[in-house]
């Protein structure tokens, strides 16, 4: 167990007491203060082996003090706490040189673990903090699920690691990719996005890598591809699960060798791009179906980030509504508010279209209704509009699970033509059904495995084994 003196700065006496007790039990010496001035005096005099501090202090914002601390003592780890819990708070903490950012309330065991890890690490000089990135809010939400995403993004900002973003349609995958670019080390380079599902299959390679004049019918001149356009910046490959196999092979070669050739070209071109991929599909299922290369998956899935659907972060709905009202007002629409009963109704809705659906609803309410305050009755009228239901094409009846599976299998077999799928189809299909079933049960119970096991009618140990074997993401509600 590492030892040392921990300097704790927080104007909340209860927080100071809790941290003092926890750190003392862990074997550390602790010094407590309620202001930034005393903290700076201790640090400047050489005291302390690690700092734990809140952002907002009575006399000074710690983000103003942190650059001075890092300049004077670059090897001193600083853990920043905050109850503001926004994306920009996490990014600022990273930019100013903080070792770690923790949103309040935090887990004491996690805090002690981070302290131990920080004190055990070699004392290496950290890079000077970057300039302030401004107060524009690219991501909105203070829920536990979003807090974890903010922390991961903050750690990734000064790296070029390849990132795979997974999430349902409408959750904001491109926003996360843009945030990684706009606040990262490649911010001065281009951000180039390409949607694999929106490009004809026979044109994807030319779109990605460019083509030479005469490379194919209609190629009247040389054209640069997205890799060339993104040189020095970030290439965002959206809906990567829809990339055809032949293009996957060429992409894998680029990732392995760092170079590519244009369609019809022979001279290798060096590439300098950061790859961020995104999908709303389960790529592991596509691998089992022979539709996605496993080696490409591991090349892209260096840092996986799962964006939660809106139904798993309903605590963020009020913030999102205010954010979208503010955006609409900036675009010239009249200012609006939403009363509490209407917000409560939004929390009960399932949001199949996720954040995009909420944004469209807010814009529609702003444009169509003259009332300054959106009431529950107005909202009920909008949410009661007919929604699209999946129907059987022949009978017009709703499609049940059995019919859906049968249709899926028919389409699946068609993709192999006269050949047969790889062996093991029975277990693959069961696994594909189990994964969304267990995921839906965990989402409905807010990550409570006891309730989820009861809902499914299985033993809790069986559920735990399934979660581990299927690698199901577990959302844990805030305590």
TrEMBL record:
Example GO BP: regulation of nitrogen utilization
Cellular component terms (Gene Ontology): cytoplasm
Transcription regulation as UniProt keyword: yes
InterPro entries reported in the protein's UniProt record: AAA+_ATPase (IPR003593), AAA_lid_NorR (IPR058031), CheY-like_superfamily (IPR011006), Homeodomain-like_sf (IPR009057), HTH_Fis (IPR002197), P-loop_NTPase (IPR027417), Sig_transdc_resp-reg_receiver (IPR001789), Sigma_54_int (IPR002078)
Single Gene Ontology MF annotation: sequence-specific DNA binding
Keywords linked to the UniProt accession: Activator, ATP-binding, Cytoplasm, DNA-binding, Nitrogen fixation, Nucleotide-binding, Phosphoprotein, Repressor, Transcription, Transcription regulation, Two-component regulatory system
4-aspartylphosphate modified-residue sites: 54
Coiled-coil features, chain-numbered ranges: none
Keyword Cytoplasm annotated: yes
Ranges of residues in domain Response regulatory: 5-119
Residue intervals of the Sigma-54 factor interaction domain: 139-367
Localization in the cell: Cytoplasm
SUPFAM superfamilies: CheY-like, Homeodomain-like, P-loop containing nucleoside triphosphate hydrolases
Function of the molecule: Member of the two-component regulatory system NtrB/NtrC, which controls expression of the nitrogen-regulated (ntr) genes in response to nitrogen limitation. Phosphorylated NtrC binds directly to DNA and stimulates the formation of open promoter-sigma54-RNA polymerase complexes.
UniProt-recorded name of the protein: DNA-binding transcriptional regulator NtrC
Organism, scientific name: Roseibium aquae
Gene label: ntrC
């Amino acid at each position: 167990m590492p030892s040392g003196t921990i300097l704790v700065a927080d104007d909340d006496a209860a927080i100071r007491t809790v941290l003092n007790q926890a750190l003392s039990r862990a074997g550390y010496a602790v010094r407590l203060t309620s202001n930034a001035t005393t903290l700076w005096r201790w640090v400047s005099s050489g005291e302390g082996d690690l700092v734990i501090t809140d952002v907002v202090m009575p006399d000074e914002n710690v983000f103003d003090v942190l650059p001075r601390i890092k300049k004077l003592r670059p090897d001193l780890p600083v853990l920043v706490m905050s109850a503001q819990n926004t994306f920009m708070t996490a990014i600022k903490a990273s930019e100013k040189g903080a070792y770690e950012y923790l949103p309040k309330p935090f887990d004491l065991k996690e805090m002690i673990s981070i302290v131990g890890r920080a004190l055990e690490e070699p004392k290496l000089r950290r890079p000077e903090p970057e300039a302030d990135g401004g107060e524009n809010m690219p991501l909105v939400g203070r829920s536990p699920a979003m807090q974890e995403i903010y922390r991961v993004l903050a750690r990734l900002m000064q790296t070029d690691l390849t990132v795979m973003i997974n999430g349902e349609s409408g959750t904001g995958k491109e926003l996360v990719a843009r945030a990684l670019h706009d606040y990262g080390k490649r911010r001065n380079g281009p951000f180039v996005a390409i949607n694999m599902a929106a490009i004809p299959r026979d044109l994807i390679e030319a779109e990605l890598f460019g083509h030479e004049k005469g490379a194919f019918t209609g190629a009247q001149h040389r054209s640069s591809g997205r890799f060339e356009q993104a040189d020095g910046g970030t290439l965002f490959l959206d809906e990567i699960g829809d990339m055809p196999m032949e293009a996957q092979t060429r992409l894998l070669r680029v990732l392995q060798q760092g170079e590519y050739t244009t369609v019809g070209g022979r001279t290798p071109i060096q590439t300098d791009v950061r790859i961020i991929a995104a999908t709303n599909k389960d790529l592991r299922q596509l691998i089992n179906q022979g539709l996605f290369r496993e080696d490409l998956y591991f090349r892209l899935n260096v840092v996986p980030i799962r964006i939660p659907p809106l139904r798993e972060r309903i605590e963020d709905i009020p913030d999102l509504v205010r954010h979208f009202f503010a955006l609409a007002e900036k675009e010239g629409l009249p200012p609006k508010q939403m009363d509490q009963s209407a917000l409560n109704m939004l929390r009960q809705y399932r949001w199949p279209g996720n954040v995009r659906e909420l944004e469209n609803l807010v814009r529609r309410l702003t444009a169509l209704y003259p009332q300054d305050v959106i009431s529950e009755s107005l909202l009920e009228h909008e949410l009661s509009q007919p929604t699209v239901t999946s129907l059987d094409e022949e009978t017009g009846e709703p499609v049940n699970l059995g019919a859906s599976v049968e249709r899926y299998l028919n389409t699946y077999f068609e993709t192999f033509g006269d050949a047969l799928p790889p062996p093991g189809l029975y277990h693959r299909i069961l696994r594909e059904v189990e994964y969304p079933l267990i995921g839906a049960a965990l989402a409905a119970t807010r990550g409570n495995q006891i309730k989820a096991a009861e809902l499914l009618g299985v033993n809790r140990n069986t559920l735990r084994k399934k979660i581990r074997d299927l690698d199901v993401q577990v959302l844990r509600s805030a305590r």
